[in-house]
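User: Hey, quick favor. My workstation is busy. Could you predict this chain's structure for me?
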Amino acid sequence: MKKRYLLGAGAAAAMAAGLGFALPALAQESYPSAPITLVVPFAAGSGTDAVARVVASKLGERLKQPVIVDNRAGANAQIAAVHVAKAKPDGYTLFMTTNTSHSANPWLVKGLKYDPIKDFTPVARVGELPFALIVHPSVPARTVAELIAYAKAHPDQLSYGTPNSTSLVASETFKYITRTQITGVPYKSSPQALTDVMGNQIQMYVADLGSAWGTLKTDRVRTLGVTAAKGSQLLPHVPAIAKTLPGFDITSWNGIFGPAGMPRAIAERINGELQLILKDRAVQEQLAQVGFEVWPTATPDEFAAYVKEQLAKWGQLVKQAGIEAQ
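Assistant: No problem, here it is.
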């Protein structure tokens, strides 16, 4: 009869080293063995936070470990990005972020303290948060073309809110392409900009559906167009701005990263679980209720290529619109 021997952790490690096996590979096989933190760069109640909580709950169920949402808001996503970039790349700190940190900040922020490509491991794109151009009902325009005509006839009489990078770049791009004189008003939060366009303190606002979804269903604002060239399945009767301004295409994407150096096997594991989660019709409907469209990538490599593509695209948009880094 052959004898069986039980090895302790130390002996197993020694044997693994002696045989040339990598200990990280052993760790990956048991991943995850502890709770996972999903860092979100915006405050609780934001569109990204709402999506993160749905995804975290479902991901935790599939991984058999809690996935805890950690809101680290501030500095236009920079605080959270730096925190994740410095975290241990073991798969227990993940980052659900948007084009703000990885497409726009590199062009809008001087002295950025992280590199969107070198400091992160792309895991998966989750989807996009559509943005819509809305106006106060007092503005006599029911189409994008009518808004352009009105703005040209009334230079400097309209103003728009810019509480985030997508609103800023979309609004400045609109102004650049149409050669209109419209005044930009910076805001610290989307809800305040939305409140002010309803109150006619500003007349225009490129709003994210996550925060404006309920308001768009009322008569307190008028929705003229969506920023994505393909339109939005959440607003099927609202035309894309590109129908009037060919080439206009600004998308606010959402995805998950880990710190640079995270094992590929872990990135692929999380990506695979997300694929299954996002195919669930109930999950898609739950996310649609907060104005979010599911649009996952098939592999981490596909997401990595998309991130690089979007970084270059946003650089062109920022330069074209003449927006200076602050």
